[in-house]
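Q: Structure for this?
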Amino acid sequence: MKEFTQQLLNGLAIGSVYALVAVGYTLVFGVLRFINFAHGSVLTFAAYVSLFGMLALKLPFAVAFGGSLVVSGLFSIMVERQAYRPLRLQGAPNLNLLITSIGVSLLVENAIIVFYSADFFVFPKVLSSSTISLGGVATIPPVDLLLTGVAITLMVLLYVFVNYTKMGVAIQALAYDRDAAALMGININLAIAYTFFIAGTMASAAGVLIGMKFNVNPYLGGLFGVKSFAAAVVGGIGSIPGSYLGGYLIGILETMGAGYVSSNYKDAIAFVLLVLILLFKPSGLLGRGLQEKV
Amino acid sequence: MSVNGSKAFARGLTTLAVLVVGAWVLGSLLQATLPNYFTGILTFVAINSVLALSWNLVSGFTGQFSLGHAGFMAVGGYTSAILMVRLKLPFVVSFVSGGIFAGVLGFLVGFPSLRLAGDYLAIVTLGFQYIMLAVLNNTTDLTGGGLGMAGVPFRTYLPVASLTLVCTLWLLSNVVHSKQGRCFVAVKEDDIAAQSVGINTTYYKVLAFIISSFFAGLGGALLGHFTMYLHPDIFNYLKSIESVSMVILGGLGSLTGSIVGAICITLVPEVFRNLATLASRIGLTEAGDFLRRGWMVFYALLFLIMMLARPKGLMGGRELTWAGLRSLAGGFAGGKGGRQWPSSK
Amino acid sequence: MGFRGSSSLKAAAFALVTVMLAGVLSGCGGGSSEIKIGCFYPLTGANAAKGQFNKNGTQLAIDDINAAGGLLGKKVVPVYEDTQSKKENVPNVVRKLIEQDKAVALMGEVASSNSIAAGPVVKQLKVPAIAPTSTNPKVVMDPEDVTKLNPFYFRACFIDPLQGAVLANFVSKNLNKTKAALLYNIAQDYNKGLAQFFKERFQKNGGTIIAEETYPDQTQDFKPQLTKIKEANPEAIIIPNTYAENGLILRQAKELGINAIFLAGDASHAPKLIEIGGDGAEGVYLTTLYAPDDPDPKAQAFAKKYRDKFKEEPNSNACFSYEAMMVIGEAVKKAGKAEPQAIRDAMENVKDIEVPSGKFTMDPKTHNPLNKPVVVIQVKGNGFVFVTKVTPE
């Protein structure tokens, strides 16, 4: 029981990361219908921005954190403008967008290695490293609390934004039918920019916090990004609650799998789950079927 | 294969024979005369071309995006190595078995996932590649796992690699110019329209995927018998991306373009390596260090610029042919001065 | 040609070809007044931080050799190449060093698996290579028959069976612990090999392995495995992994409140271990090749020289690259000519040369140095402290 509680807490922390990143995949897929492979690199980028803010500019953590969210959100918009919009306007197939996003992720990763460093970096100590004991049953480090707290706060904010603001409703309309949304007078480019900003900031929050929890390296976004995408698909791509569900599901199952079945196959668990879900419920757990228009 | 009757079939076979002999003789000549460094690079060009061609069939021609080709390469590489080392089978048998086994796995992965629309295949194949890595890492008794598999016999001499390349090119060009090939393109251009004219799209998707996995397996086997050492690490996500870059650079849906792409991508790091050494030698140590590291940024930029400025790649979907070689290359360049694939909608 | 590209594209292609030719041709020639040593290290990629130490150590040795008049009256010139720590890059990198740069001897790589990937090439092209810090036994073995020696591969450091045995003996005899757990990267030969060698000796010593957990590459969250290990309640936990992985393992173990003693191998001997591990790294024991605070005056002298030049603490990668380069230097001197075959023959018989970690003698039967001591160090405060030195008989 003790071990189970601890594993559950471990899984929740990792699940928060997957959920935060997965929602970005879902949002972008919703409006542009392509897998944004560069999404994981926004996460890496944000970790470096906040690290730079704290180490080089000597900013306090809260400022560096907030700043990196904004900078990475803007970076995300810039990537859309420079790399995706030209293709979008040419009416290029979605495959080209996907390939371009792979190029963006290669560029970000390699630029960090070449112009900064390939080494591992550690965040300056912000939170106490002593853990909080939960009645002797389990322990939880402050960074996990912060991670889960930030994740839930951002999720609630996103819910409010999407459902109760004009722009949020516009994004939903866009995801439903881009052409009809445009006819309704929605500024498509602005809505897409908003989408990328939100996706970017949520991934950045995850990036900074896993940078603190683990360490910062150029490959940070790689595996997290891929697994988060799996989470988005498992939950049902296009569904915001689905991506949260998928994120926590994969986080917890992976941790439990490693703890109780075999840690050797830890990475494979997310993908086996993904394949199974796709086989039996191709639209994901909470997804609505995406119909292709003739 | 082709439906043009026995005469065309005989002509195809003659072409193949000429190509096979030509590739073998040229490969042997180069192997005998060039330093190992250059034959090594040329061998890599051939291996990478096979991989790029295989990826091009499924993604360039059929429009199904696969990100797990490194997984199929691993299957081919390990199968061939294990059959040869453990079961002492002859090279040709092991090599072809590597391809076949990869093809079978291609069927197993492709059959369920190709029913899904859109980019899902990308993520499923990526998942397959990660699962493959986990399996390889955990089957220590058979594959050496993380300890790697040393002692893979060296068989990828330049003639072997160039022969494989020529055969791959010949076979794939026959496939894409056959009825099946046109169905592949139909599936790519418009899945639903293709269905409505009676094309069983799932069948063609799976078929393309199996053929593609087979050649990826052959490519992996070539790689294993070249480096003489296999390790799960070699077959990671970036290895899949490498094939993607080659095809993008050369042009989606252009067979000869894949080879052009493979040549460029294989040469880029070597050029930078030599430039870096040159810079260091003439005293520009800093510049040398930068070049040694900086080529990766160049590589990523090339990828992006290509995608934005020339999304159809260097060859733009056309084939490289030249009149003087028409007779020799007749098997895969039946068209007049290059074949234009229907452009995307 | 069937490509209708714009003139700028053609110009770009032409420029690329020109540059390429210039680059490729640059390899030809090269004065005979120099002796070129090819060094292939991971200068970018996951192992870059280690590779930089190797590069610095090599450079220090070459500077020393040149300051003393070079070899055979010729200047020694290193040619550094980056492997990016990718196994499939290694063969081409090594071929380039041998054929383009005319290196007469090679140094590299850092990770055992990358050195193993270089084995076939050096054997085929008959140029001796020495691995400064690759501790897996297979490195110096014949690529086609792992029971025989690769005539052209040598090593400057001890091997993992020895390191594993020293670790096991240290746990059983010095620390008096009998219950141990293992946590290692299953995807890398170094980690997996060292874990096996530890296990064998530890069980022979009468100890029991009460938990054995693994993880794949790129893992950052070790809590599932650590939680499981914690439940088994071992006295000692062996983590034969790299510094980056171990830093995280130690930090997360601390977060879970694990109080067992942690022990690691030479791949963790880097300041980043303490930086990443934070409080969790305190008290960890490491077996390594060299400690800068080893009381031996030769070790001290090397540490001072290194600190003066590079403004950082040397580690075992730096020290053993220095030693490996010195071994090549001695072999060239003994051979009397800068030819690969002659250097190889001489290298087998290098004997009793003075190096920072003691006397260096190459064993021609194993291509490993004889009696390389294993140093045990411990993390204390913000650095590594020398604990003891074990010299095998």
